[in-house]
Amino acid sequence: MQRKKITCTVLAAIVGLGTLLSACGNQDEVKPTTSSSPQSEGNKFATKMKISMFNQGTFNAAAPIPPREEDIQRQMLEKAVNIDLDMMVPQAGQATTKLNTLIAGGDIPDLLFLKSRADLAQYYDQGVLADLTPYLDQFPELKKRFGQDSWEATTYLGKTIGVPGYDNVNGISRSFFIRNDWLKKLNMKVPTTPDELFEVMKAFTEKDPDGNGKNDTYGFIGGMNKEGNLQTYGFDSLMWMFGVNPPSAIDVKDNKPVFLFTDPKMKEALAYINKMMTAKVVDPDWVTMTTPDLLDQKLFKGKVGFMIRDARRLEPDYQQKMKEIGGEVPEWIVIPPMKGPYGDQIVERKSFQGNSWAISKKADKDKIIRILSMLEYLFTDKEAYPYFAYGLKGIQWDIVDGKVKNKNSELSKEVKEKYLWVDHYRMPRRGDDAEYFSFQNPKTAEAFTNNQQYVGPTLPGNLLTADPSDTLAADRTRFINESLVKFMTGKDPLTNWDTFLQTLDTKFDMQKYKDTAVKQFKEAGLIK
Q1: DSSP state string for 36-100
Q2: What pTM does this model have?
Q3: Strand 356-359 to strand 163-164: parallel, antiparallel, or no bridges (unpaired)?
Q4: Containing domain of residue 133, as a range?
Q5: Is the predicted pLDDT of residue 27 greater than 60, yes or no?
Q6: Which of 346, 378, 398 is the last residue of a domain?
Q7: 25, 42, 251, 311: which has the highest count of C-beta atoms within 10 A?
């Protein structure tokens, strides 16, 4: 029975005939037609063309590529623009070596997925990649699919040399978790400002919110990675309340680069965190929190009232871990980020569009147009979207009450493993598509959706590439991180802030860093 269902779906995807769909007995089948794709332009692609693809953008490099007759998504791409698609998926950790070997042998794939802007720029400099600038105006839907900041990330030396690869996911991993049951017990409201948050953290620490008569609770815990970087571990979220962040947070204002880690507002952010440290509302174990897993353990134990964690910690599996480790499932809720003194209300900054699709310089004009046509179909065809984002219709998704319903969370382990290869094609899924994640707790989806409005734009500092002549770059970054930690813990008083800035200039050649930023921002057109 299941075999028949799959076969009907394959046929519907390839042939798209209404009579065939009726024969399959599924009246509300969504046909992945190419109505908004280049295929509708008559005989534009009458001659079949072979396209080789180096796909290290897969979401599961270990999944084997299925035979063409079972690979519905591949068949859809081939039919859309009349191509014979030869896809190569390198094993995890081997992509760079494999690609460099192909390039050295002159066997450059027509379409390459690259994971960083540095790689994109490097391969272009080596003469491997084509300039796509002359062609993109022919693909308005593709251009509209990604925001300006994403396209800027694929621009180098004034030329667009790539197409954004896939949306990064924002608004979920940096959620503001707070113990609502503790708020209720202490008769306090959800905080909305840094001052209100401080008072809540202080009460969580001092007023025995769990009612066990012991002094064993804390208002907050964060951490830093093993390299001493504060980003993504909680403290940086507190800094965003003041509109600043550690390296490499660089903005452009009034035609000048603004280094947020040396901005005067950073001093205020550090003073706030130092106030927290002095009041002992921060769990002293924060210095050992060097991995996300360790922070999760603190969440599960239930002795901290406010944390920055992934909204998926509201999902049933994590709720069960709370029960097993802490003995209860606390009433954690996800709240909006605090609104800071300068109006900043940021859950996180939109992730930089590092990944991209690039096209071989060996490709002629016709092949470039054919590839861009395929990418436009892949990323913009609305009827095809669920086939790429969710997988196989009738198995991984279906139409329920007239709407697309992702069924991945309902599948057995065996079925999930059988169709892992679908992950090779999920790139079109939108970063704000809650249905894609198949959340089991409605509160997770609600938190994810609500957080979207607090995702700030990508900072232009992400466009900067390392200057090989800047020999002090690593030492400078290390000094900045260490100094910020000393200031926020009180090991170095904030009265020494100016000394910190002076040391950056004299010992770590901050001016070279500034000059590099100005030069590259000018090349990117961000500074005149």
Answers
A1: TSGGGSTTTT-S-EEEEEE-TT-S-TTSPPPPGGG-HHHHHHHHHHTEEEEEE-PPTT-HHHHHH
A2: 0.84
A3: antiparallel
A4: 49-168+353-427
A5: no
A6: 346
A7: 311
